[in-house]
């Protein structure tokens, strides 16, 4: 099996690790520590989360930190979102942008107040556009990527937030579940493959791959042919045979808890 490059993992974090030595050693490089922590989480060991937090705050290797942030957002619980808020205070402008772009992957409404705080703090920087894009990814019917009135945004979300299911995870306004994502994957693949153009969706193949631990057969920018749709249909069939709970969050078939 080809070894995963944790710095450039592609649409997901690679297949399950075959390594049996996942204990962190003092001599491990930052990249090795990230590889081991990722492997443990893929096996359902979320007790590695505090060590991932430490790596994010202590490593000086930008590429490692960026992937660690991405991994953290996919594996954090609602109550872990507080760490994101604290970490942002210590991050450079570039790393703040990494957090913001990864924020929707938390699937947690708890991230929204921290995004609002960034709007106020970085009002004259490119971070604002990134924050609005992330808010739009989380709740597209409630936010626009062109919104610029912080007070109006806050009021709108406060009213909307009252109706959210407590402790549930969300993807684009709806309780998280792969069913709706699979429907969009099928219809988009059918449309794109018939036209012979590039696949336009980035988030759905990534989320489905990371939730299921099975790599999606199509990805953003890939030019599709007539073989794409049968592959996607088989992929969706595999996912339909797994057990999913509406409003839950998964990492390699393990419910994030």
Describe the protein's architecture and organization.
This protein has about 260 residues and is mostly helical. Helices cover about 50% and strands about 5% of the residues. It is globular.
Concise account of the structure shown:
The protein has 257 residues and is mainly alpha-helical.
Keywords:
257 residues, mainly alpha, two-stranded antiparallel sheet, 11 helices, 4 strands, 3% strand, globular
List the helices and strands and how they pair.
Elements: H1 30-42, H2 49-58, H3 62-75, H4 81-88, H5 93-102, H6 112-121, H7 127-138, H8 150-161, E1 170-171, E2 174-175, H9 178-195, H10 203-212, H11 228-240, E3 250-251, E4 254-255
Secondary-structure element order, N to C? HHHHHHHHEEHHHEE
DSSP helix fraction: 40-55%
The spatial strand order of the largest sheet comes to 1-2
Low-confidence runs: none
The coarse silhouette is globular
Q: Please give the largest β-sheet.
A: 2 strands, antiparallel
What's the total number of strands?
A: 4
- Class of secondary structure makeup: mainly alpha
> Taking all residues together, what is the mean pLDDT?
90
């Amino acid at each position: 099996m080809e070894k995963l490059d944790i710095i450039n993992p592609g649409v997901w974090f690679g297949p399950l690790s075959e390594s049996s030595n996942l204990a962190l050693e003092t001599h491990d490089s930052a990249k090795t520590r990230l590889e081991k922590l990722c492997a443990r989480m893929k096996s359902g060991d979320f007790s590695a989360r505090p060590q991932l937090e430490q790596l994010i705050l202590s490593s000086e290797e930008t590429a490692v930190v960026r992937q660690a942030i991405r991994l953290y957002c996919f594996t954090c619980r609602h109550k872990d979102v507080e760490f994101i808020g604290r970490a942002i205070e210590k991050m450079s402008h570039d790393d703040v942008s990494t957090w913001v772009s990864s924020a929707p992957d938390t699937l947690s409404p708890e991230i929204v107040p921290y995004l609002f705080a960034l709007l106020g703090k970085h009002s004259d920087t490119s971070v604002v556009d990134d924050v609005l894009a992330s808010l739009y990814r989380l709740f597209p019917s409630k936010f626009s990527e062109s919104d610029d009135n912080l007070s109006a945004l806050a009021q709108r979300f406060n009213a909307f937030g009252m109706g959210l299911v407590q402790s549930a995870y969300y993807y684009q306004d709806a309780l998280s579940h792969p069913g709706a994502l699979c429907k969009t994957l099928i219809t988009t693949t059918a449309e794109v493959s018939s036209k012979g153009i590039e696949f336009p969706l980035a988030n759905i193949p990534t989320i489905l791959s990371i939730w299921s631990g099975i790599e999606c057969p199509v990805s953003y920018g890939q030019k599709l042919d007539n073989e794409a749709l049968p592959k996607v249909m088989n992929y969706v069939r595999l996912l339909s045979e797994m057990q999913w709970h509406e409003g839950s969050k998964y990492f390699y078939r393990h419910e994030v808890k």
